[in-house]
Automatic annotation (TrEMBL):
Organism per entry: Sedimenticola thiotaurini
Family: Belongs to the HupC/HyaC/HydC family.
Stretches that traverse the bilayer: 20-39, 60-78, 122-140, 195-215
Keywords carried by this UniProt record: Cell membrane, Electron transport, Heme, Iron, Membrane, Metal-binding, Transmembrane, Transmembrane helix, Transport
Subcellular location: Cell membrane
Topological type in the membrane: Multi-pass membrane protein
Name of protein: Cytochrome b/b6 domain-containing protein
Cytochrome b561 bacterial/Ni-hydrogenase domain segment(s): 11-232
UniProt keyword Oxidoreductase present: no
A Pfam family this chain is assigned to: Ni_hydr_CYTB
InterPro entries from the UniProt entry: Cyt_b561_bac/Ni-Hgenase, Di-haem_cyt_TM, Hydrogenase_cytochrome, Ni-dep_Hydgase_cyt-B
Transmembrane helix keyword on record: yes
Length: 245
C-alpha cells in the first residue's frame, strides 16, 4: 500500500494567529463575566456598584474584542492568501466546491486544503457574522446601559432632563433623567439586549463545537489544527486543493 507523503505548508500568518488567540481569550472572558452578570442574584451580587463594575469590566474586555475584530477585517485586505476575504467569503463557485468536498468526505478520502475546506469556510462565515452582531449590540448596550463610548454621550444627552449636564448622568441613577425619554431609551435597548443574550448562547454552542472539532482533528493526528494556529504551519498528506503559497 502506498503511503501519501506528508508535507508541511505555511498557512496562518502571524497577525492572523495573534487575532485568533486574542479573539479566543477575550470571548472566553466575555462569556465568563457575562454569565456572572446574568446569574448575579444567584451569586449574591446585589450591590449596585458591584453590578456596574461587572458591566464596566465586560465592556472593557468588549473593546479589546471589538478592536481585534475590526483589525482582522482590515488585515483581510493585506494578509497572506489564507488571511484574505477570499478565505472567509464564498466565491462564485462556492456551492460546487462545497458539494464536491462533501462528496469526497462521504467517499472516505476527504479533499485536503491548506486553508479552510469549503465546509469550514461556511462555519467561519457564520462565526464572523455572529461576532460582528455581538460587537455592535454590545457597543449599543454599553452606551445605553452605562453611558460608555462610542454611543454613551448621545444616550446621556438624550435622557438628561432640560438644563442638566449629560456628563452628570450616572448608570442606574434616575434623578437627573427625563422619565419619558428614559422609558423610550429602555424600550429601544431591550430587544438589543435580547439579541446580545441569545446570540451569546448560540456562540457558546458553536464555540464548543469548534473546540471539539479541532481537538478531534488534533488527536487524530491528521492536520494538527491547534498546532497550526500556534506555529502557522499545517501538515497535509497528499496534494492540497488550494495550492502552495
Ligand atoms: C462574543 C462576545 C460577547 C459575549 C459572549 C457576551 C456575552 C454577554 C452576556 C452573557 C451578557 C449577559 C446578558 C444579560 O445580562 O442579559 C452580556 C451583557 C452585556 N454585554 Fe456582552 N458579550 C460579548 C460582547 C460584548 C461587547 C463587545 C460589548 C461592548 C463593548 C458588550 C457589552 C455588554 C453589556 C453592556 C451588557 C449588559 C447588558 C444588560 O445588562 O442587559 N458585550 N454579554
Amino acid at each position: 500500500m502506498s503511503e501519501l507523503s506528508v508535507k508541511e505548508y505555511k498557512v496562518w500568518d502571524l497577525p492572523t494567529r495573534l487575532f485568533h488567540w486574542i479573539n479566543f481569550f477575550s470571548i472566553l472572558l466575555l462569556m465568563f463575566v457575562g454569565l456572572v452578570m446574568l446569574y448575579k442574584d444567584a451569586l449574591g451580587i446585589q450591590n449596585v456598584e458591584a453590578k456596574i463594575a461587572l458591566k464596566q469590566l465586560h465592556v472593557i474586555i468588549g473593546y479589546i474584542f471589538t478592536i481585534n475584530l475590526a483589525w482582522r477585517a482590515i488585515w483581510a485586505f493585506f494578509g497572506n492568501k489564507h488571511a484574505r476575504w477570499t478565505e472567509i467569503l464564498p466565491g462564485k463557485n462556492y456551492l460546487v466546491e462545497l458539494k464536491s468536498y462533501l462528496r469526497s468526505v462521504k467517499s472516505g478520502s476527504p479533499k485536503q486544503f491548506i486553508g479552510h475546506n469549503p465546509a469550514g469556510k461556511f462555519s467561519v462565515m457564520v462565526i464572523y457574522l455572529v461576532l460582528v452582531i455581538m460587537a455592535v449590540t454590545g457597543l449599543i448596550r454599553a452606551g445605553t446601559d452605562i453611558y460608555f463610548p462610542p454611543f454613551g454621550t448621545i444616550a446621556a444627552e438624550y435622557v438628561a432632563k432640560d438644563g442638566v449636564d449629560p456628563a452628570s448622568i450616572l448608570p442606574y441613577d434616575k434623578t437627573n433623567v427625563n422619565p419619558e425619554k428614559y422609558q423610550t431609551l429602555s424600550a429601544f435597548k431591550r430587544p438589543i439586549g435580547i439579541i446580545h443574550l441569545y446570540l451569546s448562547y448560540f456562540l457558546m454552542l458553536i464555540a464548543l463545537l469548534h473546540i471539539a472539532a479541532v481537538v478531534k482533528a488534533e488527536l487524530s493526528g491528521s492536520h494538527g489544527l491547534v498546532s497550526a494556529m500556534l506555529s502557522g504551519r499545517k501538515r497535509i498528506a497528499g496534494t492540497p486543493e488550494d495550492g502552495d503559497l
